[in-house]
Amino acid sequence: MIRVQREDFDIGVELDRLAAGNRRIGGIASFIGLVRDLGGGERVSALTLEHYPGMTEKKLAEIELEAHRRWPLDATLIIHRYGRLEPGDRIVLVATASPHREAALAACHFLIDWLKTDAPFWKSEETPQGDRWVEARPDDDAARQRWTSGREAEDP
Amino acid sequence: MIRVQREDFDIGVELDRLAAGNRRIGGIASFIGLVRDLGGGERVSALTLEHYPGMTEKKLAEIELEAHRRWPLDATLIIHRYGRLEPGDRIVLVATASPHREAALAACHFLIDWLKTDAPFWKSEETPQGDRWVEARPDDDAARQRWTSGREAEDP
Amino acid sequence: MKILYFAWLRARIGCAEEEVRLPPQVRDVAGMLDWLRSRGGGRAEALQNPAIVHVAVNQDYVDLDHPVREGDEVAIFPPVTGG
Amino acid sequence: MKILYFAWLRARIGCAEEEVRLPPQVRDVAGMLDWLRSRGGGRAEALQNPAIVHVAVNQDYVDLDHPVREGDEVAIFPPVTGG
Q1: Using a CB-CB distance cutoff of 8 angstroms, which residues of chain A are in contact with residue C8?
Q2: Peptide bond before A128: cis, by omega within 30 degrees of 0?
Q3: Which terminus of chain D, N or C, has less C-beta within 10 A?
Q4: What value does the mean pLDDT of chain A take?
Q5: For the whole model, what pTM was predicted?
């Protein structure tokens, strides 16, 4: 399931709902991204997340579908927030549920890696030197790349 | 932090507490293990987890320390339950918090893999054919092995 | 045709969305970008580095040789930084 | 010396904990297991397959050549299945 929203979310509620009533599920892996108070060595007092409504949902749905194609997953959830957020605030939740722990863990890792490079979100940071747009990290491209070279079977 | 307990735990509360007040944290990875209603092809109505008090805490603390040695982690949490549990019940929570998502994800995967093979817990299942002790899985040994061959840097 | 700009491209061009009518000789993304650069209003400067100018047509990432047609929804934006 | 048994080893031997006095010629884990097997009460059968009998001395996993001494806490158990 995909949700793109301004509001915060409750991790406990979301993860409980993911597995609710399904007794086949043996493992739930999740990743939560938080706003940090440092960016490129400068203090960050807030972050504004802009996105491309429509394409965001489309890309996230494609990424989710790809995860289901690669691993035996009973349920997945991606929640991504937009708007103004402060350090410590939640930005994103990725969660995967599977009968098997390896599938849940690998798919969770895959989802956040792909989301980082494929979902059309942009961050602008408020710093003492003024606002500035966050630059893309080459690390993120490298992280995505790992899942396209046919090595996902040997994760990690 | 290590907790070995009979009681259930609240994921939302635990993950919030893990990052509380630390604005350096950019990612929290977690894994929750649940009781499945199937084991070795048979219906499982309940599970009893036995452990070795004292050694359990010692091994979990060693595993946690090893994770901190390998990755830049700001906080880690392992909660493992014992006693009688039913399908859908939570068994274990592993959570890691780091400034960097890769460290959080890799360390979480590492912790659950090592816990599976090193922490002295044993499961007995209640099935229509009677109670039976769960057998160790060769897969779990292989999963642990990946983290000892010097390949953790290239996770996945 | 609708063109959407995001993030610092939107800020530099000073426009989030514009309705344009492509000249008939413009058939693909590369041609469209050249034509947009010639229209002024900060577009030449904002769109000059193809390495950091990404294009989506009808909400899919596309390369420079992808066709563009009247009725397409085109979006132009820098590398994404979500998650 | 205290010996603890867990899981199906405990169930088969019918004992969770016993206090034993090792004969002086028993110096290591292998010797201790041999001696225990000779004591009857289902121990010979339960402890026969070394591949599925793990030993911890003072709460650390040890190999068959690890020394055992009076005062040690020894635990004997099958492969673990937690998580």
Answers
A1: 122, 133
A2: no
A3: N
A4: 94
A5: 0.94
